[in-house]
Amino acid sequence: MAPSGNYYYNVMPFGLKNAGTTYQRMMNKVFPGEIGDMLEVYMDDMIVKFRDEIDHTAHLCKVFEQARKYKMRFNPEKCIFGVRAGKFLGFYLTERGIEANPDKCRAFTE
């Protein structure tokens, strides 16, 4: 409860009409210099981009520093580090860019 006597959420609840928009706006405020450069955020998905291990470590440190500053927490069970390629928002991302998702291409090849 806030000092004013009003209740406030500690975490973003499911089902609120503008929860997604509000969350995205907050991520834009928490990571203003990182988004678009080393970080991409869409709803509750985040990806830290890197070219080599040194960049990866430096970028993660910067993202964790910002998250700590705003008292954000990440679920370790949902975090994956050091991946050179993977799915993000239904697309397959690699160091070369966006490629065709093999799961979606199977329908054409079979």
From TrEMBL:
Residues 1-93 form the Reverse transcriptase domain. InterPro entries: DNA/RNA_pol_sf, Rev_trsase/Diguanyl_cyclase, RNA-dir_DNA_polymerase, RT_dom. It comes from the Eukaryota. It holds the Pfam family RVT_1. This is Reverse transcriptase domain-containing protein.
